[in-house]
Design brief:
The complex is a heterodimer. By secondary structure, chain A is of the alpha+beta class. Chain A has five helices and twelve strands. In chain A, the strands form three sheets. In chain A, strands 10-1-2-11-12 form a five-stranded antiparallel sheet. A five-stranded antiparallel sheet of chain A has the order 5-6-7-8-9, with helices on one face. Chain B is an alpha+beta fold. In chain B, the strands form two sheets. In chain B, strands 1, 4, 5, 6, 7, 8, 9 and 10 form an eight-stranded antiparallel sheet that branches. Chain B has a five-stranded antiparallel sheet with strand order 11-2-3-12-13, covered by helices on one side. In chain B, helix 4 packs antiparallel against helix 6. The longest helix of chain B is centred in the middle third of the chain and has 21 residues. The termini of chain B are far apart. Classes of the chains: A alpha+beta, B alpha+beta.
């Protein structure tokens, strides 16, 4: 008499009420990523590290903001971050960058609360790698860099790919103009392809000896690197933010750049 | 009488025929907002020395059809901030209900003055949007939040469907980012010049921008809402009309080249 009897004929309500299981595939056309441009640069010195980035925030050909910093202090004991010792820079998709920054900052704060001391740069670097790899199959679309001083007080820079491969380096440029800046750094920081004048020809040439640069030299190199990038890349410009990490704390400076 | 409770209240097949469940059966996956349907166009806003001016027109388009001409896209929150919505209107209405609940819950804890400043509200909304995009179920909106921050300084910031956030002395969404931003940046290129603008100047700049947008944005309307947020609260005007439009020059234009009459 009742063909719709739920018990006799199995599930046959007039509306679809089957519970959805977790992880069931769905079809979408929505793209969860975008690129907000900008470029970052980090150089480690003998007893200091400088993390720099431009402050332009773009989408397509539009400038969203001329003052959107992408270099952040991490793991201070309060929200003003005035006692922080580690600096993070993120470049790429800004929303993922902000989410990554918030997460790493929270982890560093919890570490400080549990252990009664700030996280070392080395430990923080490993932790950042696992955070990034935690989203291996829906990555944070950012090139991250971490800077500070190591346990011996020497300047240190760690650079990452979006899924957490990382390496300690002397210097690294990332983001939109990374490919413009990096060869310049190879030449000016690591003295690549520079030889001692008059030391011979061909294989007899002696390489110019590497030595750590002074703080003022590094600041000049960073300014020149960004000025060069601003001229040649449309997504870079507006202002240059530099965070200088020394044993006495973190200094911030913001210099104007071309706004075109 | 049928003794089986499962069958109670169901139409009898011998009287009504078997129910054809295929009418209601939906085997497709749950549909999230995959593209905006009914949409609102630009929201524009600029900071001045005591607060923020924000405006959006009253149109909700259905594709190229100007379907709903009385949709208010500015929403005051706790008489302390204003959220301007562009993008999908159903998602805007969802967020509006969500904010009503939030305002209610907040009013229990702090009935006399707003506890959430505009910067708190912006952070809340941007986290909400970022969470939804990470679930691949975005709220298809681009919002501007205007008001004052925790220090009482003018606050203006944007958040979009991807959870991207940014702040600037003047902001505009959609078409406004191309047409209104250059106009507003003439008056407020940086924070210092925005802090020198008077309220009257800021309102005039916004009115000028709404006019430029009506001239050149095919999804815009000449009736709009305009809100001014200061420390004294939100002043909302919801049925403004564009004034002093210039169309007289059109009489002299004939043909597309050589035609003279």
């Amino acid at each position: 008499m009742f063909s719709q009897n739920p018990v006799m004929n199995g599930p046959n309500y007039s509306f679809s009420d089957t519970p959805r299981t977790k992880g069931e595939p769905r079809e979408h056309r929505f793209n969860p990523y975008t690129d907000n441009g900008g470029s970052t640069l980090a150089i480690a010195g003998a007893d200091f590290t400088i993390m720099a980035g431009d402050t332009r925030h773009t989408s397509g050909y539009s400038i969203n903001s001329r003052m959107a910093p992408k270099v952040f202090k991490i793991g201070g004991s309060n929200s003003s971050q005035d006692d922080a010792t580690i600096v993070l820079s993120v470049c790429g998709f800004a929303a993922d960058g902000a989410a990554l920054r918030d997460q790493l900052d929270t982890i560093c704060k919890i570490y400080r609360y549990r252990h009664g001391k700030p996280m070392t740069l080395n430990a923080c670097a490993k932790r950042l790698s696992t955070i990034l790899y935690g989203k291996r199959f829906f990555p944070y679309y950012v090139t991250a860099m971490l800077g500070g001083l190591d346990e011996e007080g020497k300047g240190a820079v760690y650079s990452y790919d979006p899924v957490g491969s990382y390496e300690r380096e002397q210097c690294r440029a990332g983001g939109a103009a990374g490919s413009l800046i990096m060869p310049f750094l190879d030449n000016q920081v690591n003295f690549k392809n520079q030889y001692v004048p008059g030391s011979g020809e061909g294989h007899d040439l002696k390489e110019r000896e590497r030595h750590p640069l002074s703080r003022s030299q590094v600041e000049t190199i960073i300014k020149d690197a960004f000025d060069g990038a601003v001229e040649r890349h449309i997504e870079v410009g507006d202002a240059l933010q530099m965070l200088i990490i020394t044993k006495d704390g973190i200094e911030e400076s913001i210099l104007p750049m071309k706004q075109d | 009488m049928d003794h089986r409770p499962q069958a109670w209240g169901r139409p009898r097949d011998d009287v009504y025929g078997a129910y054809d469940a295929s009418f209601m059966q939906n085997n497709a996956p749950t549909a999230h907002t995959q593209q905006p349907i009914v949409t609102g166009t630009s929201v524009v806003a600029i900071k001045f020395k005591d607060g923020v001016v924000i405006a959006a027109d009253n149109l909700a388009s259905y594709g190229s059809l100007a379907r709903f001409t009385d949709v208010k896209r500015l929403r005051p929150f706790a008489n302390a901030s204003v959220v301007g919505f562009s993008g999908d209107i159903s998602d805007m209405q969802y967020l509006d209900r969500h904010l009503t609940d939030l305002a209610l819950a907040e009013a229990y804890d702090s009935p006399d003055s707003a506890r959430l400043s505009a910067s708190n509200l912006h952070r809340y909304l941007s986290k909400l949007l970022y969470r939804r995009r990470s679930k691949f179920d975005p709220l298809w909106n681009h919002l501007l939040v205007a008001g004052l921050d925790d220090q009482g300084a003018p606050f203006l910031a944007a958040a979009d469907l991807l959870g991207t956030t940014y702040s600037s002395p003047s902001l505009a969404t959609g078409f406004g980012a191309m047409l209104a931003q250059p106009v507003m940046r003439r008056y407020a290129p940086d924070e210092e010049s925005a802090a020198k603008l008077t309220r009257e100047e800021a309102v005039n700049v916004i009115k000028e921008c709404m006019k430029v947008l009506f001239y050149r944005d095919a999804r815009s309307l000449d009736s709009y809402s305009l809100a001014v947020v200061t420390k004294d609260g939100v002043e909302m005007k919801e049925n403004e009309k564009l004034e002093d439009q210039s169309w007289a020059f059109a009489e002299r234009i004939k043909g597309y080249g050589t035609q003279t009459v």
